[in-house]
Amino acid sequence: MKKTRPVVLTSISVLTIAAACWLGVTPAGLAKPKKTESPQQQQNAVVRPAPDIAWLGAGGARQSIKKFRGQPVVVLVAPGPDNGEFQKQARLIEKRYLDISARKIVFIAAFSGTAEHPQPASSIPFALAADGAGAAATFGVANGKFACIVIGPDGNVDLQSERVEPAQRILDVVNNSHAPQAAERKGQGS
């Protein structure tokens, strides 16, 4: 068994450690372990362009995310419209729909667990992804899982979460994406 020596701290070393901590400096040997981020946190920390998914719009015209660049897009991935997380997310969005609709957000439902494309029972005008399973795979969402994905007006994925997100969080992400911030900076510079 390895013997360890007791550490003897003098009053000067205690004061040095206290001063260093007060200044925000970690003394050598007392370094805190680094907090590791989950792959989801790492993924959200990097700017990444949204993959293009397609759906059939009014009159059977093919639409895609790239055609809506300049508008925020929210994609809800779920196994089907009866999924509890999908229904809860839709209800939260419905409660704030007046605020959300003012931002001209496009809503897409991508159902990964069904070949049929039933319209969800919701007052939100969801477009239905033509290939829900393909859309889920494109965003890296495991089959049978729920995800809420917010794509900013600049075409980048600003949030991808496997949790039901409060509607205010979705609004905050849309309002704080790069494009609105850049437009605001331009307006302040003149």
Layout of strands and helices, then pairs:
Elements lengths: L10 H12 L16 H7 L8 E3 L5 E3 L8 E6 L5 H12 L1 H5 L4 E6 L15 E2 L3 H7 L8 E5 L5 E5 L5 H9 L2 H12 L1
Parallel strand pairs: 3-4, 4-5
Antiparallel strand pairs: 1-2, 3-6, 6-7
Summarize the model shown.
With 190 residues, this protein is α/β, with parallel strands linked by helices. It has helices at 11-22, 39-45, 84-95, 97-101, 132-138, 167-175, 178-189, and strands at 54-56, 62-64, 73-78, 106-111, 127-128, 147-151, 157-161.
CATH topology: Glutaredoxin
Tally of distinct domains: 1
Q: What would CATH call the homologous superfamily?
A: Glutaredoxin
Mean pLDDT: 76
From the helix content, strand content and strand pairing, which structural class follows? alpha/beta
Beta strands, count:
7
CATH class: Alpha Beta
- Listing every helix as H and every strand as E from the N terminus to the C terminus, the arrangement reads HHEEEHHEEHEEHH
Number of H- or I-type helical stretches: 7
Biggest β-sheet: count, sense, barrel? 5 strands, mixed
Helical amount among residues, as a percent range? 25-40%
How would you classify the quaternary structure? single chain
Q: How does the overall form come out from the CA principal axes?
A: globular
